[in-house]
Amino acid sequence: MKFTARKLAALLTITALGTAAFPFTTHQAQASGFTTSISAAAAQLTDQQVQAAVKELNRLGIMNGYSDQSMGEHRTITRAELASLVYRTFDLGNQTGEGALITDVNPDAWYAPYAAKLVELGVMQAVDGQFQPQRLVTDAELEEVVSKALKRDVKSVHHWMSSFFEDTGSVTRGETAVLLQKAYQAIPSEQAGVESVRALNNMTLIVTFDKPLTAADEVFAKSKTDFVFSGGLTLTNMPRLKTGSASTYIVPTSVQQAGEAYSLTYKGQDAGSFTGSDVKVNMTEVRQVTNDTFEIEALKGNGVVDYGYVIAAYSAGRGANAFVLNDREQADGTTYQVISSMQARQVTITPENGEPIIAKYVPFTQSTDGRQEPKFRLPEGQVLKPGVSYTVTSDWANIQNASFTAKTIEALNIESAKAADDTAIEVTLAQDPGDELFSGRSVTLTAPDGHVLTAVYKYSSRKGAAGIFEITQEGKMIPGTIYTLNPVGDWSVASSVTVVNQ
């Protein structure tokens, strides 16, 4: 049968099961508190999928059955049962957290150690000491618990539940099994190996592993050593796990040569080959944003998306803008181009009748304030000349409107600054620039005795008109000293702005 309308209005009596409410394993469940209703999954979720998941979890020793030899897949699941399943799925026994106080669980109950451990780890809650072991689990609670246990973004877990998730009602053991089977596949492993590799565009690969990478293996310094390419190709930033995927990564590389056969080794093992792509990302327009900086716009409406909106690491921070791409880079019927990390990227900007200039990407500006507009800055000391027409070209992008005429743009006005602590200050502009214009900038702090400290903007710290600047070279402000702030360069002006470290 196919589980049709996810939460059936009808109730299914289980009188015929008799004592089947008790698991037949050594963990004896209490019969009280089990519902007699059956919840059925959405049309996408079939009996075959549920049975396959239950069978797999049973094989792994995660899910056990009842005394009547049934697995109870149609039964709504209690918090006691969920604690046991989650504990086993993610092997939480060796993890430690803060002490947990549970007052409504008998220490001799079969589920007591599981409930205590999950509360200790903060995976499940015991409000005022009440674990409520026989309370039924909702879809939303299951989503939250699995997200915490796996340490994976909620949007991915929600996507894995899309075939049965509803805002109201309780979740079944079978539905829980379907989710846990998927989540089990998404547990990181130090032994992860590459299953497939393909070029997405000429600066991006899609690499699928048999298991997700550990956090240590994702770090750029480590991954740059682990990923070794032929033909001089290099990794340009860390691999990023796609939202909703168990183990597929967006991997940024230096620009590939179209048609060239590349090979990849991962941790010294042959990991496959791929052909260099000739696909460039379609960008829309170039705009000047300061006297030394310009941006290149891309539009989601044109089928181009920054990777920040489709990777698990950023999904929480992107809110409603985050979404899931399938394995063909599609969502809601649209196939997207993906802009991977801009780290180490550059473009060429050429003034009319002038010599080309290399402009480098300004870190953490490729997708801010809901806009896809990576910024590029001229070499230090150079500025765009008002009235001169400039054209931007790139080996990684096709730019529809690639030219602009430079104009004089008024410098940002620093209105005030205050000490955040003895090693950082909060700088506030006269008005919110509405974009990441602090990035790559610095200021000096001069004490009355002439001693100078330099503070550099902390990437992505801006909130509205204010951003954090951190003092470099382990410098510290002396308490009670009044420092005079001055921008480094012409990016801003500051009139009589002082900082006191109280």
Q: Main traits of this protein?
A:
8-stranded mixed beta sheet, 502 residues, alpha+beta, 27 strands, 16% helix, disordered N terminus, globular
Overview of this structure, please?
The chain is of the alpha+beta class and 502 residues long. Helix content is 16%, strand content 26%. It contains nine helices and 27 strands. It has an eight-stranded mixed sheet, with no helix packed on it. An eight-stranded mixed sheet has the order 26-20-21-24-23-22-25-27, with no helix packed on it. It has a four-stranded antiparallel sheet with strand order 1-2-5-4, with no helix packed on it. Strand 20 (412-421) and strand 21 form a beta hairpin. Helix 1 packs across helix 6 (173-185) and helix 2 (79-89) runs parallel beside helix 6. 39% of the residues are buried.
> Structural class, please?
alpha+beta
Roughly what fraction of the amino acids lie in strands? 25-35%
Largest sheet: 8 strands, mixed
Main-sheet strand order equals: 18-8-9-16-15-14-17-19
**DSSP, total strands:** 27
Low-pLDDT parts are: 1-43
- Mean pLDDT across residues: 89
Q: What's the helix count?
A: 9
Instruction: Give the overall silhouette.
Output: globular
N- and C-termini, Cα separation: 71 Å
Q: Give the proportion of residues in helices.
A: 10-25%
Task: Describe this structure in a few short sentences.
The chain has nine helices and 27 strands. It has helices spanning 47-59, 79-89, 112-120, 139-150, 154-160, 173-185, 215-218, 220-226, 315-318; strands spanning 194-201, 204-209, 227-229, 240-241, 248-252, 261-266, 269-275, 281-288, 293-297, 304-306, 330-331, 334-335, 337-339, 346-351, 357-361, 375-377, 389-393, 397-401, 403-405, 412-421, 424-429, 442-446, 452-457, 466-471, 482-487, 492-494, 498-500.
